[in-house]
Amino acid sequence: MTLATAAGSLPAQAEGERAPMVLEEIMVTATKRAASTQDIPVAVQALGESSLENLRVDVFNDYLLQLPGVSSGGSGPGQGTIYIRGLASTTPNLTTAGVAGLAPNVALYLDEQPVTQVGRNLDVYAADLNRIEVLPGSQGTLFGASSQAGTIRLITNKPSFNGFQASISGGVSFTKGGEMSEKLEAMVNVPVIEDKFAVRGVFFADVQGGYIDNVSGVRTAAESARFASSTPRPNGVPTTDGFQAGADFSGVRFLEARNEHLVEENFNDATYTGFRVSGLYDFAEDWSATLVHMRQRIDSEGVFFIDPELDDPENLSVERFSPDSTTDDFDTTALTVEGRVGALQMVYAGTYLNRDTEQTIDYTDYMFVGQYLPYYICDASVTYPGAAAPSGTCQAPDLYVGSTTETEVWTHELRFTTPEENPLRATFGGFYSSQTLVERNDFTYPGSINAESFTPGVYGWPQNGALPGSSVSDPTPRPLGVIFFNDITRTDKQLGFFGEVTYDISETLSVTAGARWHDVDVRLKGSANSSFFNFGGEDVNAFGTNLDTQFDGTQVINGVAVPKGAEAKGWVFKGNVSYRPNDDILLYVTYSEGYRPGLPNRPAGAGGGAVPAVVRTDEVTNYELGWKMDLFDGTVRFNGSAFYVDISDLQTTIFDPTVTNLFFSDNAADAEIKGVEGDINWMPDAVPGLMISGAFSILDAKVTKLVGASVAIAGPGEDLSYAPSFQGNLRARYVWDISDDFEAHVQPSLTYSASSFSDIVLINRAQQDSYFMMGMAFGVRNDKWSMEIFGENLTDERAQLNNNLVFDRERVSINRPRTFGMRFGVDF
Question: Which domains does the chain have, with CATH numbers?
Fold first, then answer.
């Protein structure tokens, strides 16, 4: 379906007379052929260029708000995870950002380039985009792994031979209780050789002011899970009694972690900067090459979640005891060659992506679940087993993590299409990708340097280091205080061959059959280690893991031989029947399959064998009935679909210290999703210049069967996560002339989402409240420049985008409070 809005004014029919507005027809390549959204029997939510402009879409969360049925979890810029139609289990935490993370089940594309990544999707800034295409439902035949719930495609504007073009746009906005934000974007298009070679470039800088305060607080190890009795978590699920719960700690000196030096208002600011340059060269008849290079950097400070126990409507706040910062850089280069080989249209797309992230995260909250934490920051006399009246000193629990990732991705796709006018037509080709992710996480406990260790008379813990024989990227000993670390390389390789064939049985009836053979291999190597190892322990299963031995087929854990890696190999299929009774109505039914590869587990065999060595591939079967209708002489457009999704072995990520101190993954449950989604656009004849648009999603996403996960999962009949039972939006745009040269517009908008859950793992499961938001914009423009004033989130709603209970304390990621702003644009 399409979320079309009114296009800009068409050329005047007569001098001084503005042409009528029309429903925007968006050309998409959802089937890897260019076609109007109204002409393809595929569910497509599309935001065209004018819609993106009208809706002020810049970053990840902007366009998600406009797409019912599409939701996200995450905790800040560059850390979002996309979900479609409620096919979700959990949202990755910082320590599952890469090597231990599940592959996403929604594929993200930038033009022809898949930029899907484990743990952290690219947060691509929406500069100079032609459109955003969202393909809900399994797209496994054409788009491969990680497209089991759907595919999102960001399509950029290409260089044009039609003369010099340039534009500048920018704006400033003010957030209630927060800092000012400002942005600037510039584009230039230059035909270098007439009808042969053109270049297009875009630059952007967007400074997003903060709106969350880091407030003063105090922490001591006395609050550690080791010393605490069982209490209800915020979701009501009780915690586990600490190993030393009930002991007399009156003889223990607990040193305080204080954060006065970090107290700051509006500390969660973020800046997006970057550019994209592309060249289009027609080097022969029917042959062209497009080369695109993009670079983007995100710099953010602070965190984008609050502590609801500290919160009041006027002051969004959290307590952090170490600096939080993220730098996220990526460069990508893509070459697309298009041409004709006989009757076949050929497309080759080859891409390279390099991404580097550096992150420092306050880890003090870990104390609320880390039963072993006092071993490392308290004197041995405090944690000595069985001591009824411990004595000694516990250092301050100001913990932090330093995390770096280095990612390289190569992809190649070669495909062919037969002529569109033939009654029998086909799309077929091959795909290969190779992704290498190197991740280093240093979990630093500064208090461990001064704490008395288990060895009598020896103070402080020794430097941590890699397990012998492991293939780490940094073999040097870690700095003092690094109690745990990960230095792991993950490789994901995918090979696939695909094809779809469509046959027109008659002028009104067509059938399509598609298939894809795939072979995906996921492997780990490196070391995950505890400094406890350096006291002479050799039990790598308990205190560390040499993944080189674990995943070369030689390691035996709890009597079980661990396989080399995780592999997904086999076929997925698609079938479609479409019926067009007339030019204005298209009906279709679709059967499609999707898959997501599994992965090896770092702590395989932990928890008495509870952690599986390898997580199984989860699989999806999608059944869909869809319709596309242009009604009442083209003044009403109603697109929609009803669907049923069957899910087997749904994967999830788990943190449960009673099993292991490392995050791990498991197959949680079978599930089913029933739903209806649609959008309607209406241009009433009685009010020229008015466009009313609405969209909705209704979901019933339930667990149907537990499949033996190592921890308690939401039971049969309970909701999946990130699956609101209803989401919808409604907006109107009214455009009128105010002079011969100028037109004005006003655009109110409403957005609503029902409540949802944040996880299917019971200890981490929290309910996220429903929300309702309003927006308003008013502007004027002519053929050269435009100006608009706008208000967003006028209801000042605290929309809960992600609710994290991983450390037994509620941390809620929220939207930006009420914001007013002004923006401008100039075309040259």
Answer: 27-220+255-363+399-827 (2.40.170.20)
